[in-house]
Specification:
By secondary structure, this protein is an alpha/beta fold. It folds into two domains: 287 residues, FAD/NAD(P)-binding domain (3-Layer(bba) Sandwich), CATH 3.50.50.60; 163 residues, Cholesterol Oxidase, domain 2, CATH 3.30.410. 24% of the residues lie in helices and 22% in strands. It has twelve helices and 23 strands. Strands 1, 2, 3, 9, 10, 11, 12 and 23 form an eight-stranded mixed β-sheet that branches. It has a six-stranded antiparallel β-sheet with strand order 7-14-17-18-13-21, covered by helices on one side. It has a three-stranded antiparallel β-sheet with strand order 5-8-6, with no helix packed on it. Helix 1 runs parallel beside helix 6 and helix 5 packs across helix 10. It is globular. The two termini are 23 Å apart. Bound molecules: flavin-adenine dinucleotide and iron/sulfur cluster. The site of flavin-adenine dinucleotide (FAD) has 43 residues, from helix 1, strand 10 and helix 12. The site of iron/sulfur cluster (SF4) has 13 residues, from loops.
Length: 501
């Protein structure tokens, strides 16, 4: 049963086998697996349940309903927009449905650098297979790659850069292009339409929405209760308290909010090692219509300069085609005046991509006095170098396909119309607030490792020193897990739940 906040106006108390905090990629999978294994499960989700039929495809209605802070969560300096879902199904409801599991060299990197040697490559691959099957992953057929994606691949070919088409978790997609504001057709197989229904079908799961967990009560080495408030849907006003006792607790509130709930429990590494993998938008104007906002938004990529190694982990950059909604496009291009007028007058003729640059762990998340997260993050020099390279290659790719101008995301840039204009990419400042950056993949703030001094959870994803508390979300990765984190989180959920069965 899915129970909304309005159904418990005076709050509630409950006892259960497993209490799961958050219903996204980690929490959703854990709920399904545990309920199917015979455990009684209570999922607490701060957001609300928004079924497909209520998804209106309107930005102004869907961002407040589906996103954390209505899509306006930022780093403390305002430099990076940190996007996260806040709804039943978490970020899997608003994501681009690209399926990219953890590559084996990354696992080796974690074994060598962080002692994460509990699971063999075979176990991780098994978890990858199960994760992909669970959300019906399949290859995007070539005929479903929209013109925006085709232009990126064609430009790559002309300039000597290779890439491909993503696997995705869509079935019956009608190519509407509205993935970022929720799929009205239930074609995107988010956990809200896969794992949560699987959990509910057992009769052993209860999902409580509008339930914000505020703290964990602890007695020695055990968590004794999960406490929080039912919140009013439109105002976030506290309505009533709840208290849940459970044999086992799984924290899956995502990489920004999980560390807040471990305040006083997580040890010195808590909230450290944040990676954001910021992405910068690149757009270009073509002579004919592209309608980049129609079709599967993120179907194609160029990744020949992405580096995946056991020594260094994930590095380099990749360029991915992207479909944008008009409001998001306006917010993510530093243009105004006549340029903005021209771009939006020719919106149908724009092509768009994101340059995604993996970073090294280095940011922090701490809890402000008002309980909200403070996301402290500085752009690293290596990251800036890789971004400059990615922007240059992206601009060359678009020029090669006949774009009449390429628009850089850098403040002070002028449209690139030929090779001579590329020099500005190396000269203009790249720093917080000098370019619009988006992060859809925050991770690392409850890093897994062997020592409490340097990590928050152990190799089984149990919080060091606590017998009945696991973290199963994007916060446990010691370094960037993949260019896309949904399947990696699900892999962690499979392995972590496996420890309980
Ligand atoms: C716009 C966007 C596009 C993306 N595109 C892709 C993609 O194409 N491919 C890919 O692999 N990944 C993508 N991702 C990333 C991927 O979806 C996430 O990495 C993944 O969902 C993270 O899983 P999680 O369990 O850590 O957190 P989430 O899925 O974010 O779930 C966390 C849940 O916890 C809830 N919560 C938080 N705090 C509390 C609290 N105190 N009490 C109760 N509940 C709480 C939240 O409301 C949320 O529902 C994208 C993400 C975004 C935002
Ligand atoms: S593009 Fe496909 S998956 Fe995305 S919202 Fe449209 S129908 Fe759903």
């Amino acid at each position: 049963m899915i129970r909304s906040g309005t159904q418990v106006p005076t709050g509630f108390t409950a006892r259960t086998d497993v209490c799961i905090i958050g219903s996204g990629a980690g929490g959703g999978v854990a709920a399904g697996l545990l309920a199917e294994a015979g455990r009684e499960v209570l999922v607490l989700e701060e957001g609300r349940h928004v079924p497909g039929e209520d998804m209106t495809q309107r930005e102004e209605e869907m961002y407040p309903l589906l996103y954390r802070d209505g899509g306006s969560q930022y780093t403390a300096d305002g430099g990076v927009s940190v996007l996260q879902g806040r709804t039943l199904g978490g970020s899997t409801v608003v994501n681009m449905a690209d399926v990219v599991p953890i590559e084996l060299p990354i696992l080796e990197h974690w074994r060598r650098g962080f002692g994460l040697d509990r699971y063999s490559d075979e176990r991780w691959e098994e978890a990858s297979r199960a994760s992909q099957e669970g959300v019906f992953a399949n290859r995007i057929p070539p005929e479903m790659v929209n013109l925006n994606g085709q232009i990126l691949l064609e430009g790559g070919e002309k300039t000597g850069h290779s890439g491909g088409c993503f696997d995705h978790n869509r079935v019956g997609c009608v190519s509407s292009g509205y993935c970022s504001v929720g799929c009205a057709y239930d074609a995107k197989k988010s956990v809200a339409v896969t794992w949560i229904p699987r959990a509910l079908a057992t009769g052993r799961a209860l999902v409580q929405t509008d339930a914000r967990v505020e703290s964990l009560e602890r007695d020695g080495a055990r968590i004794t209760a999960v406490v929080g408030s039912i919140i009013e849907r439109n105002t976030n006003r506290v309505v009533a308290p709840f208290r849940v006792e459970a044999d086992h607790v799984i924290l899956a509130a995502g990489a920004i909010h999980s560390p807040l709930l471990l305040d006083g429990i997580g040890g010195p590494a808590l909230g450290q090692n944040l990676s954001l993998n910021p992405q910068a938008p690149l757009t270009a104007l073509m002579s004919g219509d592209v309608k980049h906002y129609r079709g599967i938004p993120q179907a194609a990529y160029l990744d020949d300069e992405e580096v995946i190694s056991a020594e260094l982990g994930l590095g380099g950059y990749r360029i991915e085609s992207i479909g944008s909604t008009p409001g998001m496009a306006a917010a993510s291009m530093p243009i105004w005046g006549p340029t903005a007028r021209e771009v939006f007058a020719r919106f149908n003729q724009t092509v768009a991509a994101l340059v995604l640059v993996p970073d090294r762990p280095g940011g922090t998340v701490t809890r402000k006095a008002n309980g909200r997260p403070n996301i402290d993050y500085t752009l690293q020099e290596g990251w800036k170098r890789a971004l400059r390279r990615g922007l240059r290659v992206g601009a060359e790719v678009y020029l090669a396909t006949g774009a009449d101008s390429v628009l850089l995301p850098l403040v002070g840039s002028t449209p690139i119309r030929n090779g001579d204009d590329l020099a500005q990419i190396d000269e203009l400042p790249i720093d917080a607030n000098w370019l619009p950056l988006i992060s859809a993949h925050p991770q690392g703030t409850c890093r897994a490792g062997t020592e409490r001094a340097t990590s928050v959870v152990d190799r089984r994803f149990f919080v060091h020193g606590i017998q009945n508390l696991q973290v199963l979300d994007a916060s446990v990765f010691p370094t960037t897990s993949s260019s896309h984190t949904m399947i990696p989180v699900m892999q962690v959920a499979h392995l972590g739940v496996g420890e309980l069965l």
